[in-house]
Amino acid sequence: MCAMSHNLIILQIPDNIEAAVQETIGIDKKELVHILDTLVDNLVLFGLKCLASLALFFIGRFLLRRLYNFIKKILEKKEVDKTIGGFFLSSTSVIGYITLVLMIVHLIGIEPTSVMALLASTGVGIGMALSGTLQNFAGGILILLTHPYRVEDLIETMGQFGIVKEIRLFHTVIETFDNRVILIPNGSISTGIINNYTGNDCRRISWDIPLCLGNDFEEAKEHILHVLREDKRILSDPPIRVFVSSFINDRVVISVWAWAKGIDYMDVQQEFATLFYKEYIQTGLKQTYPKMEVVLREKED
To answer: Has residue 213 got a pLDDT over 50?
Structure first.
């Protein structure tokens, strides 16, 4: 069909023009028809391969998502640690997509070995370009092995403060208290300072309460203990401590130490500061405030 079409086109070309073309490119009419046939066949074949590659990509992506959700359900059913489970899922997803890309490259007609040889020949440049990515990958492995924090821990690192939601292959996902989602590179975290507020089961919470001199310390202590003991988040062991920590000018500073679970730290610290203030107003205890005495002297003539 294609050959007949090309022959028809060539027959319509005047002899003088056909002769000029043959003289210019150095091939006769039959060779030209054969070249055009081969070109059309190759274009059709390449187009079919491209369509098949697109179909393979969408089908493969669909299957990878189903596999991801299937593995996720199994890990949740087996109650696998969220830190290990999240890292495993992230690794599975990356490996799956790399395998899919290699399959598509092979389907198009490019041998994967040729691609690997090309990558190997340009390994130095790629290595320099991906040095940060490789460092993040190594940092993720290090975090997974050493467990400086886990999913749902409250941490502060790289100037960010929030709850760890996921540890991925290259990043750690943190959700802040103002509902921001922050991705921090694992390489930076693994070599930086990490403040894990929930690393231990319980934490000590401190308050410093200034009182005017003359207030009854024992009365103030009883009110403080009464407020703390009514809240179940305050642990009885270690015991609560209330003591005078310092004297400053006309005031005395009462320090309060109480223990709570690490996850409750922020809420307890903020809420009880308000409760102490309300309790002091209700009981009539006087708090001190900064003040200054100014003495005016008349100038003598």
So the answer is: yes
State the CATH class of domain 136-196.
mainly beta
CATH of region 202-283, choose from 3.50.50.60, 3.30.70.100, 3.10.290.10, 3.40.50.980: 3.30.70.100
The pTM for the full model equals 0.51
Which DSSP helix (H) or strand (E) runs through 247?
A: strand 241-248
Using 50, 70 and 90 to split pLDDT, how confident is the model at 293? low
Nearest partner of 116 among 98, 142, 132, 130, judged by Cα: 98
- Classify 91 as helix, strand or coil: helix
Alpha-carbon distance of 143 to 164, in angstroms, equals 13
